[in-house]
UniProtKB/TrEMBL annotation:
GO biological process: endosomal transport; intracellular protein transport; vacuole fusion, non-autophagic
SUPFAM superfamilies reported for this sequence: Quinoprotein alcohol dehydrogenase-like
Native organism taxonomy: Eukaryota, Sar, Alveolata, Apicomplexa, Conoidasida
Cellular component, GO annotation: endosome; HOPS complex; lysosomal membrane
Stated name of the protein: Vps16, N-terminal region protein
InterPro entries: Quinoprotein_ADH-like_sf, VPS16, Vps16_N
């Protein structure tokens, strides 16, 4: 496709992110063009295939949805916290679709009190429940594993939050204690250091492990989604507290990152694991480098009056923001 008239030739590589970088989200000069400029990088949309989503698309606000990376399967299950009108078939089901929207498999869902549902690196669907039970499923809805994280979780009132990462499962109990399990097929749980929380955090995520000190800097950066021979340190968890502090938690200690603009309501790690996006309650966006102690490297300016609610990475050089908007019919998009 030819470059739009009056615009510079598009660059196909990602823009570099230096510690002093400060980039903004803006549209290209020609609003009718397929090319759009994001910082100094030009993008365009290409039709790959037609989507097959039908009525399921309108029901996503009633589902708990988990999408695997790189266009992998999409798992959906009824959200028991949201009222839904009765239909002919009111029995909940676990449904797994392709990214295109084709139903791959479904099975009865007889469980309750789901805390989180996510895919791990092996495209195994990991479901964590309030009582500390973990169930895993294949992309064909086959039951794979069933185990309990730790009996102490029930004593502490069950789980209120959990996160699934490439290295394992992090769970937070009602007593505000963090547990970590480094396997998806059995219980290998440890208790993490006290974070001093006074209430459940607004968001949490697991960072990929950082390269050990003294490792070759020319070696490929570790990623959850690609193998690496670099030796790795312990897991790291970022916790966004209600008070505004952003905490870094590992097996041995908890550190306050001293980041301004909190509290942060959403956290998102890029696919390579190199960058962390932090979205504040006021709509401010901060981008952190995850190497060593996470530090801010950019503060993108959002040319929006409405506050975004969610943020997700598209690769390593682009962020997608979800901004709820009311339609004339009264729906929210």
């Amino acid at each position: 496709m030819a470059t739009p008239a009056g615009l510079p030739p598009p660059a196909f590589g990602p823009a570099s992110l230096s510690p002093a970088a400060d980039f903004s989200f803006s549209a290209g000069a020609n609003g009718s063009s397929d090319w759009q400029c994001l910082d100094s990088v030009w993008y365009r949309k290409l039709d790959v295939f037609d989507m097959e989503w039908k009525h399921e698309r309108q029901l996503f606000d009633l589902f708990v949805v988990a999408a695997a990376p790189y266009g992998g399967p999409v798992a959906c299950v009824r959200n028991e916290k949201v009222f839904q009108p009765a239909k002919k078939n009111i029995k909940p089901e676990l449904q797994i679709f392709s990214a295109r929207g084709r139903l791959l498999a479904k099975s009865p869902w007889t469980y309750s009190r789901l805390v989180t549902m996510s895919w791990n690196n092996d495209e195994v669907l990991v479901c964590v429940f309030q009582d500390g039970v973990v169930r895993t499923f294949s992309p064909q809805c086959e039951k794979l594993h069933f185990f309990s994280l730790d009996e102490r979780i029930k004593v502490e009132g069950g789980l209120v939050q959990a996160a699934v990462g490439g290295c394992g499962i992090v769970a937070l109990t009602a007593a505000l204690n963090f547990y970590y399990n480094d396997a998806f097929d059995r219980s290998q749980t440890i208790v993490l250091p006290d974070t001093g929380l006074r209430g459940p955090p607004l968001s949490l995520c697991i960072l990929p492990a950082a390269p050990c000190a003294g490792s070759d800097p020319n070696e490929k950066t570790f990623s959850w989604f690609s193998p690496s021979t670099t030796k790795l340190e312990e897991l790291r968890i970022v916790v966004a507290t209600e008070s505004g502090a952003l905490l870094l938690l590992d097996r041995h200690k908890c550190v306050d990152l001293k980041l301004d603009d909190g509290p942060f309501v959403a956290l998102s790690v890029s696919r390579s694991g190199r960058l962390l996006a932090c979205l504040s309650s006021t709509g401010q966006l901060r981008v952190l480098s995850t190497a060593g102690i996470p530090r801010a490297i950019a503060s993108p300016f959002l040319e929006r009056q409405m506050r975004p609610k969610q943020v997700q990475w598209c690769g390593d050089d682009c962020l997608a923001l979800y901004i709820p908007m009311h339609t004339p019919s009264g729906d929210v998009q």
